[in-house]
Structure formats: C-alpha cells, structure tokens
Amino acid sequence: MILSVSGIEFAYNSRPVLDGVTFELHKGQILGILGKNGAGKSTLLKCLNGILQAHRGTVFLNNQDIRHLRGDEIARMVGYVPQRYGNEPLTVYDAVLLGRRPHIRWTATRRDLEVVDAVLSLMRLKAFALRPVNELSGGEAQKVIIARALAQEPELLLLDEPLSNLDLGNQVEVMQLMKRAVRERDLTAILSLHDVNTALRFADRFLLLKEGRVHAFATRETLSAAIIEEVYGVRVLLQEIQGYPVMVPWPRPFESQPLKEHIDAI
C-alpha cells in the first residue's frame, strides 16, 4: 500500500472543507476524485503532499507520516501538477529539468539529463525541447507540467484538474499519456476531475466527495448511477459502449416538456 489517509479534516478559517476523509490506495492504481465545485477536491490533494497541513488525521506515504518528512523527501515520492501554473519563459527542457531539483545537490548529473530526455520522449515533447513554455499551446504546456512532475521520479502523482481549458483532442492525449506513464513507470496517480466520463474512461478507483465527506469510494464494478445522482443531484444512466462505461444525464419528467411550457411556467 502506497497511501493511507485516515480522518483528514481541514478548514479555511472557520469554514470546514474536509471532514473525516479516509481511504487507502495501492501501487499502480489510478484514482479519480469527483464531486461538485467546493467539495474539497483540490484541498485534499494539497493535504496529501503537505502543501496544506491537515488539522486532524494522518497521511502515510509508504508507511511514513508526511508530518515527519521534509519537503524534499516528500518531493522525491510525490509529483504534483497544480490547477494553475505560471506562464514561464523557460525552455521546455529547462522547465522539465526543474523536476530534478529534489535529487540535485550541486549540479545536474548525467543521470538527471537522462531522466529528462526519457520523460520528454514519453510525453512526446522532444520536438519542443528548446521552445519557451510561454509560446506553447495549452495542451503542450500542460504536458510540460506533467513531464516536470514525472522527472521527479515519484511513486505517487497528484494532478489537480489536469484537463482545465483543454479542447477535446488535448484532453484525450493528455490522459492517454498520463495513463501510459503510470503503467510504464509503475506509478500511482490521483486526479481531481470535473468530467465523470473522463474518470470512468481512465481511472480504476473513484473517490466521490460531498460537502467535504467521502460519499463513496468505489471501483468500476461498484460505482452506480444512484451514487452519482446523490453526489451531483443529477439523474443519470450508466451504459457500456464498446467495453467502456459512459454516463448520460437523464432528464426528469419536467425537463422533457417543450421549451414554451417552461417559459409559460416561469
């Protein structure tokens, strides 16, 4: 088991955000964190790598309490891709090389450069190595940020809404590359996502948060339409298309009325 989370509580000032979050994750799994805006998804990720200190509860990485680990020790085990990132003038190569900082003592070694080259190949960024990051498209820049996290050679990868502001093609490519990296490097990944169908397509486990609490911790087999409706307040159907589960919002009876009847009702 790579991650054990028990009873995590967190509040901003006096406003509770996380309340007793508990779950465990094994090596090689991909966990999708789902829930409405404000459910605590981003806050939970920051508690998992020590950016935020939980007010109560524990987080164990490889059986080590993160409260007793230095920042560089956590960074060697956990790669973090934030929801927002700077518009960097660095080249792609230098931006990814920054991911080696937890390992570099005085100067980059041949090993560090080999890791960067391998990650650039994995994320299909070789052709952009000398391009400034701030001249890239949104999808290309997002791949650079993920590549930087992979260059840390972490065991656990945390991604906070990695598909924000990406078009459909870039969303699919980024998720396919991320899943490939997890499989080839034997990583564990946790992603906070808005799109339930993306989670269904790429994740193995699902943590559904509702008002800061764990409403369900499910597998593909146990995640149900009822659970999704309870979390999002939207009636849905779960179907399988060519072997992949797909969620379809299903209108309630009043939503099937003609538009004119809705207007008349108002």
Describe the secondary structure blueprint for this structure:
Blueprint: E1 3-12, E2 15-25, E3 30-34, H1 41-48, E4 56-61, E5 64-65, H2 71-77, E6 78-81, H3 92-97, H4 110-122, H5 138-151, E7 156-160, H6 168-185, E8 188-192, H7 196-202, E9 205-210, E10 213-219, H8 225-232, E11 236-241, E12 244-249, H9 259-265
Parallel strand pairs: 3-8, 3-9, 6-7, 7-8
Antiparallel strand pairs: 1-2, 1-4, 4-5, 9-10, 11-12
Helix pairs in contact: 4-5, 5-6
Please name the defining characteristics of this protein.
266 residues, Rossmann fold, six-stranded mixed beta sheet, four-stranded antiparallel beta sheet, 12 strands
Query: How would you classify the quaternary structure?
Result: single chain
The CATH class, by name, is Alpha Beta
- In CATH terms, what is the fold-level topology? Rossmann fold
Which geometry do the CA atoms define?
Answer: globular
Give the neighbour order of strands across the main sheet.
6-7-8-3-9-10
Task: Give the averaged pLDDT, no decimals.
Answer: 87
The CATH superfamily is known as: P-loop containing nucleotide triphosphate hydrolases
User: SSE order, as H and E?
Assistant: EEEHEEHEHHHEHEHEEHEEH
- Class derived from helix and strand content: alpha/beta
Largest sheet, strands/sense/barrel:
6 strands, mixed
Q: Number of domains in the coordinates? A: 1
Number of separate helices: 9
Instruction: Report the span from N to C terminus.
Output: 54 Å
What is the share of helical residues?
A: 25-40%
- Low-pLDDT regions: none
Give the strand content.
25-35%
CA gyration radius, whole angstroms: 20 Å
Q: How many strand elements? A: 12
